[in-house]
Amino acid sequence: MDSEASNTDTFIHSGVISKITGDSVIVSLEQNIHCESCRAKASCGISESNTKDIEIQNPNESFNVNETVTVVLKKTLGLKAVFWAYVFPFILMFASLVLTSLFLKEWLAGLVSLFILIPYYLTLYLLKNTLKSAFKISIIKT
Questions:
Q1: Terminal Cα distance for the chain, rounded
Q2: Exposed (0-12), middle (13-18) or buried (19+): which is 87, by Cβ within 10 Å?
Q3: 50-106, pLDDT tens digit by residue?
Q4: How many domains does the structure of the chain reveal?
Q5: Predicted TM-score of the model (pTM)
Q6: Taking a C-beta distance cutoff of 8 angstroms, is the pair 51, 28 a contact?
Q7: What contacts 12, CB < 8 A, 6 or more positions away?
Q8: Are residues 19 and 34 in the same domain?
Q9: Which domain holds residue 119?
Q10: What CATH number does the domain containing 43 carry?
């Protein structure tokens, strides 16, 4: 299975279509033997387990189950995902801690800053269809 940076802004992984439902295709990416020597394995996430399933919405072509395909992942998608999943919640939590510590006791400010994450992640969950369209992954027949 190829796992290489085709150019400076994309990663390419080969996989097999495991399921087709409606307008989405689920591709199984198997562990790559080349992941051990890859420079980007820490940010990729593919090297951490044996198989990963990726759901791809609205593919341009028609595919069949058990067909070998190539999955193209843009590096910018990973940076966006890290921002929305980790960086922005940290900024939100830290800002709420600083602001609430001006008006409340420290322990209560800490609880408020932790509980502020519940509506944030709930909002992300409710916007999951919008986020799926923003985080496009493309597949190509091989």
A1: 12
A2: exposed
A3: 678 888 876 777 888 888 888 887 888 888 888 999 999 999 999 999 999 999 999
A4: 2
A5: 0.65
A6: yes
A7: 2, 3, 4, 5, 6, 70, 71, 72, 73
A8: yes
A9: 78-129
A10: 2.40.50
